[in-house]
Design a protein that fits this description.
alpha/beta; 37% helix; six-stranded mixed beta sheet; binds S-adenosylmethionine; globular; 208 residues
């Protein structure tokens, strides 16, 4: 592999704990659309684990820009169970459909909502609701502000830093994200505490 590819130390730290959660959430043979795949470290780690475990996950990575797509495609070119990355900005109306299926079993996204304009939250929810199969899940990882719980000093500092870099960025309130999901027709299923004051949110598209 090209050692000059972009690398995220945070993705190396969180990929294991996230995988532990995905194992409980994704069925064998799951078709997963990943939004904002970034460096591709998550896709690579999850797909290799799926291969070792015989879970048969089919991973569809994506990125928002051609510049983001190029290194992602290079990292994932030979990873089994990973399809060639697609270009997808959550705000675009046409999201890729799962080939030959009623919809994706899951849409997965990590670390997008605090580092993009707030409009991306609603777009994410509406897009996922359109392309998930009935009973499918939207899985969202990242730092969130949870009402009634103290925000950690590290997340407070992170929030200030994000807003100084771009006034449209910043940690999101869980209740605001839940409101967007509800408006899109998704049902909030679970909130999982994760290492380093992160969370995993799970939303479902109703089966009926
Ligand atoms: C902090 S990185 C997270 C990457 C990876 N998911 C991870 O956790 O390591 C944020 C990613 O969101 C992507 N992104 C930003 N705005 C986006 C949008 N409107 N639609 C889709 N992806 C977007 C960026 O290109 C970037 O790769």
């Amino acid at each position: 592999m090209n050692s000059a590819l972009p690398h995220s130390p945070a993705a190396d730290r969180n990929k294991g704990p996230i995988l532990d959660q995905l194992r409980a959430l994704l069925p064998v043979g799951a078709r997963v659309l990943e939004i904002a795949s970034g460096t591709g470290q998550h896709a690579e780690h999850f797909a290799l684990a799926s291969r070792r475990g015989g879970w048969g996950w089919q991973w569809q990575p994506s990125e928002a820009t051609p510049a983001g797509l190029r290194p992602l495609a290079e990292r994932l070119a030979e990873v089994p169970g990973v399809r060639p990355p697609l270009m997808l900005d959550v705000r675009q109306p046409d999201w890729p459909k799962a080939a030959g299926a009623a919809g994706w079993d899951a849409v997965y996204v990590a670390n997008l909502l605090h580092i993009s304009p707030w409009a991306c939250a609603g777009a994410l929810m509406r897009g996922a609701a359109r392309v998930l199969r009935p009973g499918g899940r939207l899985i969202v990882y990242g730092p969130f502000i949870v009402e009634g719980e103290p925000t950690s000093p590290s997340n407070q500092a992170f929030d200030i830093d994000l807003r100084s870099r771009d006034a449209a960025w910043g940690l999101r309130h869980l209740s605001d994200v839940q409101d967007e999901a509800r408006a899109a027709g998704l049902v909030f299923e679970a909130l999982q505490d994760m290492p380093a004051h992160n969370r995993l949110l799970v939303f479902g598209r109703p089966a009926g």
